Amino acid sequence: MTDAGPTGSDVRRPAGGPPPGCPAHGGAVPLSGLAYQQTPSELYRSMRREHGVVAPILLDGGVPAWLVLGYAEVTYVTAHDELFARDSRRWNQWADIPPDWPLMPFVGYQPSVLFTEGAEHQRRAGVITQALEGVDQFELAQWCRSIADQLIDGFAGSGRAELMSSYAHALPMRAAVQMCGMPAGGEDTEDLVTDLRISLDAGEGDDPVAAYIRVQERIQRLVREKRSAPGPDVTSRMLTHPAGLTDDEIVQDLISVIAAAQQPTANWICNTLRLLLTDDRFALNVSGGRLSVGQALNEVLWLDTPTQNFIGRWAVRDTQLGGRQIRAGDCLVLGLAAANTDPQIWPEGHIGAENSAHLSFSNGEHRCPYPAPLLADVVARTAIETLLERLPDTVLAVEPEELTWRPSIWMRGLTALPARFTPVVR
Questions:
Q1: What positions belong to coiled-coil segments (predicted)?
Q2: Which tens digit of pLDDT belongs to each residue from 384-394?
Q3: Which of 105, 256, 278, 417 could pair covalently with 199 via S-S, beta carbons 3.0-4.6 A apart?
Q4: Number of compact structural domains in the chain
């Protein structure tokens, strides 16, 4: 892993709890537990009732931070980089963070576009934007259709499939590595995806820091390969961009691009398939009608957005937000899922799925760079429509209440989506 700022200290938090004056005082809520696994929306409502739109929370190891729950407040934070910036070296808790802290891949400073600010961020984001603009959306849809057909061929004859691992997870991975110029299907490519999953959404026994190091090493090899033999891909366009990014800068930014394209899109696909297969409103049109799939995709971004919470922003100076006193260096976690269901924007509790003003791709200078959301939509829509066209009588192989969510506070995705259908042999 790259230099993660002042994180090498051996200082540990005293056994008595968080230091005085930190936001943990005043009934801070641990950002963990079963409530996040199955019913996070209920937890967000409870936190909003008890703490308001900005709640004191505890991250792994009892580290204090703030969770921004309100739609207006998340929008304000992401629109005011001069107050809430992305460079995590500002954090006032580094003295208490061990180097093997599980959230280090999220917050340890790296020289990537994610942590840059001002003109440097505009320069780096501009390179990514132009590299992604070079992806032909019609060609991407054709790639995804071909990938989908290959994956479906692998299980269509059996009449049963676990769609999360064999389809929803695999398809955006193959599309992402193909866009970036990596060979699809190789063992090192599969290892890369596994390590990305661990670094973003570690399970019990996983080592997210070690996984991130392996991700970085594989992308370094890709950049070296494309430096010597460029092609019509995102990596090569970043290498030849007039901005002249260094190889190290490109490695870091490619990790961000691939991670954003793979895991969230996989969960978007799977969460949408779950909605289509469990909600009676879509039952009459489950064979893949374009309007129905589009509505389901958008509704999922409101109600089961793949990225639930994002860490984060760091206060540049003392300020106030949502009635809370925020100190310089405090960490703010963006509660994207909570903001999307804020009763202030949906006063009658009805989420308007036709509305696209959700915060699932964040907001402001650091939102997902255009045209990344459009490309993700192409991947997700093609994946779902192809599956439902090829296997139109797909139904769940278990009762809806038997489906379980991964125990993650950051990502919203099922552990598995077992389905059955009439066997088809091409």
A1: none
A2: 999 999 999 99
A3: 105
A4: 1
Concatenated DSSP letters for 37-100? HH-HHHHHHHHHHHH-SEEEEEEGGGEEEEEE--HHHHHHHHH-TTTEES-GGG-TTGGG--TT
- Cβ atoms of 92 and 357 closer than 8 Å: no
3-class secondary structure, 266: helix
Q: Give the pLDDT of residue 337.
A: 95
Which one, of 237, 220, 265, 219, lies nearest residue 128 by Cα? 237
In a domain, 67, yes or no: no
Please check the confidence at residue 8 and state whether its pLDDT lies above 60: no
Please tell me whether the overall predicted TM-score, pTM, comes out greater than 0.85 for this model.
yes
3, two tokens: 């230099």
The one-letter code for the residue type at 367 is R
Burial class of 425 by CB neighbour count within 10 A (0 to 12, 13 to 18, 19+)? exposed
Give CB contacts under 8 A, 24+ apart, made by 128-131.
128/238, 128/253, 128/256, 128/257, 128/369, 129/369, 129/370, 129/371, 130/237, 130/241, 131/234, 131/235, 131/237, 131/238, 131/241
For residue 30, give the amino acid letter.
Answer: P
Q: What residue numbers bound the domain in which 374 lies?
A: 94-310+359-420
pLDDT digits (tens, 9 = 90+) for 339-359: 999 988 887 666 666 688 899
Report the C-alpha gap between 373 and 229 in whole angstroms: 29
Q: Is the separation of the CB atoms in 272 and 385 below 8 Å?
A: no
